[in-house]
């Protein structure tokens, strides 16, 4: 693999992380789910032990959310290219909500797969770095 090919994969996966946050903040759930492989897995940072698997279950989980205003900020994105069609990444996340609550600080551990030339999440596992005070 050339440096240019590796850079292209790193860029595509980092873009996917940022696009996910943007679509999530606009409650565009069908488009968020389309960023996952058909058998993609997600765990929310607030529920890291509760895996949600597959497009149907992911869409149901997003649609079940109460409407809210959010702003996700993603940082420290580090993508590791594994093969021409697989990669992984870690990133930091800061979530602001319109509620009178402190922001949530967490991380994502992602796995990516290229299917039919398109990079998708095969796995997106979130965790909180600091537990919110109640």
Key structural traits:
49% strand, 134 residues, 28% helix, alpha+beta, 6-stranded mixed β-sheet
Short summary of the structure?
The protein has 3 helices and 6 strands, in the order ααββαββββ.
The SS-based structural class is: alpha+beta
Strands, count = 6
The helix count comes to: 3
* Helix and strand sequence: HHEEHEEEE
Strand numbers in spatial order across the main sheet: 2-1-6-5-4-3
Largest sheet: 6 strands, mixed
Weakly predicted, low-confidence segments: none
User: Which range does the strand content fall in?
Assistant: over 45%
Work out the helicity level: 25-40%
**How widely separated are the two ends?**
49 Å
Shape: globular
- Could you tell me the mean pLDDT? 95
Based on CA atoms alone, the radius of gyration comes out at: 15 Å
Task: Furnish the topology, listing elements before pairings.
Blueprint: H1 3-25, H2 29-33, E1 36-44, E2 47-53, H3 55-63, E3 70-83, E4 86-97, E5 104-115, E6 118-128
Parallel strand pairs: 1-6
Antiparallel strand pairs: 1-2, 3-4, 4-5, 5-6
Describe this structure in words.
The chain has helices at about 5-25, 30-35, 55-65, and strands at about 35-45, 45-55, 70-85, 85-95, 105-115, 120-130. The protein has about 130 residues and is an alpha+beta fold. A hairpin with a 2-residue loop joins strand 3 (about 70-85) and strand 4. The relative contact order is 0.22.
């Amino acid at each position: 693999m050339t440096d240019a090919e590796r850079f292209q994969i790193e860029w595509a996966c980092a873009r996917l992380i940022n696009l996910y946050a943007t679509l999530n903040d606009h409650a565009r759930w069908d488009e968020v789910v389309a960023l996952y492989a058909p058998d993609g897995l997600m765990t929310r940072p607030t529920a890291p032990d509760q895996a949600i698997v597959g497009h149907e279950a992911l869409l149901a989980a997003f649609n079940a959310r109460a409407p809210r205003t959010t702003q996700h900020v993603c940082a420290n994105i580090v993508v590791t290219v594994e093969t021409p069609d697989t990669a992984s990444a870690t990133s930091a996340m800061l979530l602001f909500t319109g509620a009178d609550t402190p922001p949530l600080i967490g991380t994502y551990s992602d796995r990516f797969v290229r299917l039919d030339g398109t990079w998708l999440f095969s796995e997106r596992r979130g965790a909180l770095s600091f537990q919110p005070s109640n």
